[in-house]
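Troubleshooting: if your tokenizer reports a length mismatch, compare your output against this known-good record of 375 residues.
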Amino acid sequence: MTADDAPVLHEGPLRVLALVTDAFGGRGGIAQFNRFLLQALSRHPAVALRAMALTGDDRAAHPSEMTWSVPRNGKKVSFSGAAAAAAIRNPPHVLISGIVGFGPLAGALAAVSRARLVSIVHGVEAWTPGNAIDAFALRRSALVLAVSRITIDRLRSWSRIPEERFELLPNATDLSRFSPGPRPRELAGELRIGDADSVLLTVGRLSSAEGYKGHDRVIRVLSRVAESRPNVRYVISGDGDDRPRLEMLARSCGVADRVIFLGHVPDTMIPDLYRLADVFVMPSTGEGFGIVFLEAMASGCPVIAGNRDGSVEAVSGAERGWMIDPDSPEQLCGAIIAALEAGRFQDRAVGGVEAFSYERFQERVHWIVDNRLGR
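Known-good structure output:
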């Protein structure tokens, strides 16, 4: 750590302005990460936090210790103006940038307010160089928070940001929300899933830009899995522009009757989906981490992940976790059969997930505040 990167002591609270894509009222893994981060920061006794989101809900429940706003829902120019006004009116000591492509704005506001710039990176958005101006702002960050080691390594490979400017902050999950339990009969009935059916599950957007998640890989091996598990079903939760391609693939592979496309489901339904499943499988190649693995493990569900991306960091310590070459149908098929034979836990979480509890996450955030950001 250089002298410029050392923590700076301030009189009074450490004023933090966080600019994020979405958090409270948002959906998806990044929104959850942001919620946990903002909650942890707000609970630090020395932090005065103001957070602004590009999208979301002003009225969503959030910690009372922080100031939360969605100034111009989805309108980037208006959001930028509101963020600039907030930074000028009450200059922060620390400015957190969690919005891809907003590096130039965050860098300029940090310079004007003489704040320390902290950038957050998750996965593929940081693995290769993007916009040159955005990359310049990222390099100027006093601290970069990354959810996985692979993201740090791939970002450093092109940015040359010194190792000492990084802190690892893995994703977390809510162990009180995701918990083991019997197969939900009402949901199983709606989906026409019987007690004898073996259920595979993937939760994630069906975006053509995120084809790396591996839905197609699972569809291609289903007929082979069915040779030993005739009642296998594959439930896909999520929607997006890649759904028609995947539906066509299921038909061409002769497994359309085994694949259930749920489309978008409400967040309240997700815990029951994990309890419905026997195995969670997502043989991806581009995950920065993969919160869904943690959710499945917390629900007692064995997990299968690819061995080339940040999924490894979520699954490597799992009691019932398989990491396979995502481009090997043989390995994928073998792992699915092995996981089905091992079975899910009905009364406890998969061992290893406790390392990713919210409590551990908050401890890590508070350590970063105390040791890297100053008080």
